[in-house]
Amino acid sequence: MADVPKRILKEIERLNRDPVPGIEVNTIEDNIRYFNVIMCGPSKSPYEGGRFKLELFLPEEYPMSPPKVRFLTKMYHPNIDKLGRICLDILKDKWSPALQIRTVLLSIQALLSAPNPDDPLANDVADQWKTDEKLAIQTATEWTQKYAIEVWAKNPEVKP
Description:
The chain has one domain: Ubiquitin Conjugating Enzyme (Roll), CATH 3.10.110. The chain is 35% helix and 17% strand. It contains four helices and four strands; from the N terminus they run αββββααα. α3 packs across α4. The radius of gyration is 16 Å and the shape is globular. Residues 3-149 form the UBC core domain. One of its GO terms (molecular function) is ubiquitin conjugating enzyme activity. It is an enzyme of class 2 (transferase).
């Protein structure tokens, strides 16, 4: 761990000491720059009750460049594509070295509460969100039930 920047070690220490509500973050033993994340869907959203798997990776350039984050759980969301990539300004052009892993995760959780179909990554989902929001929310709820709740219920031995 001698070659890992103190900044990363401090962020990990803070995440362990003061966890983010609704978000579990676990480092991978042999690669301290790689994290498994379990994010609970926000209440009063179509993702409520879901437990979503994400992966987060800190590139060598971190904190001068943003972390790489993607959903591993299948999502129906205008700002998350089929590969789990996330359209979020702080993961792209609005990144600042002042931001931290904690901020990124909270921002992703907020994105689940407030999808932005005007800045989509999944155009088909965004189109449905704009033309029939009720149906889009229903579909997102169904996907949450199918991929983020049932999976855990059927496989309780699966560790987040």
